[in-house]
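Give me the fold.
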Amino acid sequence: MKRILRNAGLFALIMVVTAARPAQANVSGAIFTTIANGTIVNANTQYTSKCDVYLDGGPGVNAPAKAAGLPAGDYFFQVTDPSGQTLLSTDPVSNRRFTVSSAGVITAYTGTGGPVHAIGVDQVHPELGAITIAVANTSCPTDYLDTPNNGGVYKVWVTPVTSFVGDPTQVDNSCGSGCYHGFAASSSKTDNFKVNPNTATFCLTVTKQLVDSSNAFLLAGANWEMTLNYPNTTSNNFFTDANGNLSICSLAAGSYTISEALNGYINVGLIVNGTSLPAQPTYSFTWAAGQPAPSVVFQNTLGIN
């Protein structure tokens, strides 16, 4: 009788411990690293900065819609060294969250609790509403940390929110064998990428302001579309955040043009690095190593005059 009771007690303990851990299952589909517009898969040595790496999922270039699509739902991501032992992400797990639609592509960044991760419009499958998400947040290059790997190799992980082990309000989580910082290997997708840290790059910052007829600041131009044309790529569309700000990083030397969508408004001001220029909705410049990074402010009236 005592042995039966002891076995029953042990069984109950196992059931409690098992119930306390999230359900884990293999995740179908695929993830990969790319540039902001999603047109290059696994760029590897083409990445000139940590800030240049974007996360994408589901069908890649030349793949049909839904090919290798991730299951619909919410996911967390993280960056580590290739072994997974060293966590390189520095913001809370909750800030590294996104949503996958029923089409199997990433359609929303939903992170909270830290600097935002920029998004790009995935030009491979725009008909699905697909986006890409910057692996680093806007504090880049501070986030994420440099890899200890001598070859400049990093690993990005993606796991369903329901499979995450730990407290997502924390940056790191201990979770035992086969689990890395809250990400169980058995229920995560991973992809290695490589960054060449020796190429000079810069961040272009853009601010959108809505002003009145006297140029007095009234509102931030939130979720305002900007288009950047730059060497060796097609145009890329970006959007300002809730404060009207946008940061596009890992840009190398070359000639650039940044343009704002007018949306029926009138451009009344253009300020570059604190200097007022003739008002226009487009600014072109050439950047070389050692030059200051451009900071561009577009100002528009609140309505049509």
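Confidence is low (pLDDT under 50) at residues 1-24.
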